[in-house]
Amino acid sequence: MQALASRTDPDWVRGALAHLDEVLVDHAHCEKKAASTAVSLLFKYPERDDLLAPLARLAREELLHFEQVLAQLARRGVRFRHLMPSPYAGRLRQIVRAGEPGCLVDTLLCMALIEARSCERLGLLASVIEEPELAEMYRGLVASEARHHETYLALAARVASAPEVGARLGEVATHEAAVLAAVPSMPRLHA
Ligand SMILES: [Fe+2]
Ligand SMILES: [Fe+2]
């Protein structure tokens, strides 16, 4: 993923494989949260009619992903349950500026980076997992999350100028890499 300022350590893949059920439960939460964030933007920015339909589509797709991960959990006999989330997303969003339009631009760029990181990591899992059902799901999600990354970048470019978005994307990506390097190691998609 071109936008990312760092590459995932191979140790993360080894850790995820060793705790795959827990990573899958966390992944389901991440898909649900991704849908919820897109919906929350619909509530926060009802006047941005250039963002509404793409965000609604994103939210629907993320809920479909949530259902796909739930189906894999059920197939493996793993119950969906509450999990302590990685502090990654909360820390990432500390870079979001308070005033508008900076707040909206930064939120969209944070989402673009989360999508990029998910895409990278799901791709790593797809390349090593032998279970055909899971590998197939991961491959499908890699394509979707790459598209979502592009969608969030395109939406940011509707809010601010291309040079502004490009410069800010670099700053948010640097911050994202630092946040990811600092979060405690745990079996999570973003840890
Ligand atoms: Fe997703
Ligand atoms: Fe996504």
SSE map:
Layout: H1 10-18, H2 20-44, H3 49-75, H4 88-92, H5 102-128, H6 132-159, H7 162-182
Helix pairs in contact: 2-3, 3-6, 5-6, 5-7
Question: Biggest β-sheet, characterized?
Answer: none
Tell me the total number of β-strands.
0
Heterogens: fe (ii) ion
The H/E string reads HHHHHHH
Average pLDDT metric:
97
- Share of helix, binned: over 70%
Percentage of residues in DSSP E strands: under 5%
What structural class results from the helix and strand content?
mainly alpha
Segments where pLDDT lies below 50 for 5+ residues? none
State the end-to-end CA separation.
Answer: 17 Å
| Envelope shape | globular
Summarize the structure.
The chain is mostly helical.
Keywords:
single chain, 191 residues, mainly alpha, 7 helices, 0% strand, binds fe (ii) ion
Description:
The protein has 191 residues and is mainly alpha-helical. The chain has helices at residues 10-18, 20-44, 49-75, 88-92, 102-128, 132-159, 162-182. α2 packs antiparallel against α3 (49-75) and α3 packs antiparallel against α6 (132-159). The mean pLDDT is 97. One fe (ii) ion (FE2) binds next to α6. One fe (ii) ion binds next to α2, α3 and α6.
